Amino acid sequence: MAASLRKPALSSCSSSAAETDDEGVRGTCEDASMCKRFAVSIGYWDDPYIQHLVRLSKERKAPEINRGYFARVHGISQLIKAFLRKTECHCQIINLGAGMDTTFWTLKDQGLLPRKYFEVDFPTIVTRKLHCIKCKPVLSKPIVELHSEGPLQIDGHMLDSKRYAIIGADLRDIPELEEKLKKCNMNTQLPTLLITECVLVYMSPEQSANLIKWAASSFGTAMFVNYEQVNMGDRFGHIMIENLRRRQCDLAGVETCKSLESQKERLLSNGWEAASAVDMMELYSQLPRAEVSRIEGLEFLDEMELLEQLMQHYCLCWATKGGRELGLKEITYSSVQGSG
């Protein structure tokens, strides 16, 4: 018999000094979610679930921002699908700093769900997402339908079911993170894909190295996907840094974002065996021509140079460990782009 979602009282997070310091970082989750919601609303890609998690901004987003988010979503989606194909979905996915991400629901619709999909974020963000899940049947029904083992485990900062878990935790506290993931039946023997999108840059280099090292040491067969800033040493990069500082958001880990090489080196020096990286302008230039024509027809872009500058300051990196028999190292940029 399908379990039903209980409705526990939503408890708010305690407002410690650390959480106050992290307010700017939590604000970037809101910004990214609203940018994705806007891009979806004007047809950049299809996502029937984001409207149930994120309000539509009254402010129109610039065309270069929308195209940047399209490239980001497309690139990460292709890497996820490549991993799922290699493992034949006999794997787990852990999205670290997931925010209002809708990948779990999209993969279910596509018949591509891994054995289990985990999301982790700040407890306050998880509380908000849980509220949406409990209040919106379109979000809760797929979770309940896949769960056949008694009542769902749920409280204000956590939901655990057979195929989906969402956990409130601080990614800088590795013991707490590991404990909560294991409580939700994380399986270290399964091939594991870990995803971070604009997450590591808000940690100190030591903190992000610890997280990457933990990921490499915890799973025998794994892949790590990271999307964040790159080439931050030039004038455009400095402007980006200052704009965020004005919003009380410090890029504590920006020194690792100097180049594609520094991004790869961070992964290789913390336990990963092979690493690749590409800036988003390169990725955009390799998108299927039909898709590029379609999205470029949605809005007029006045200055292509602005798009190029923006895209050259973000990158997609991925690293693998083990999985030789699965061919994980064969997941290259060209193979991902060619996979459709």
Overview of the molecule:
- Helices cover 44% and strands 15% of the residues.
- It has helices at 17-21, 23-41, 63-87, 103-109, 123-135, 137-145, 174-183, 205-218, 235-245, 260-268, 280-285, 289-296, 304-311, 333-337; strands at 92-96, 116-121, 153-155, 158-160, 164-168, 192-197, 222-229, 274-279, 314-321.
- Helix 2 (23-41) packs across helix 3, helix 3 (63-87) crosses helix 13 (304-311) and helix 5 crosses helix 6 (137-145).
How would you briefly describe this protein structure?
The chain is of the alpha/beta class and 340 residues long.
As a percent range, the share of helical residues equals: 40-55%
Give the strand tally. Answer: 9
Mean pLDDT: 90
Widest sheet: strand ordering? 3-4-5-2-1-6-7-9-8
How would you sum up the major sheet?
Answer: 9 strands, mixed
The dominant shape is: globular
Radius of gyration: 19 Å
The H-and-E topology, N to C, reads as HHHEHEHHEEEHEHEHHEHHHEH
Task: Report the structural category.
Answer: alpha/beta
Our measurement of the CA-to-CA distance between the termini, rounded to an integer number of angstroms, reads: 38 Å
What is the count of DSSP helices, taking H or I runs of 4+ residues? 14
How much beta, percentage-wise? Answer: 5-15%
The low-confidence runs, each spanning 5 or more residues with pLDDT under 50, are: 1-18
What oligomeric state do these chains adopt?
single chain
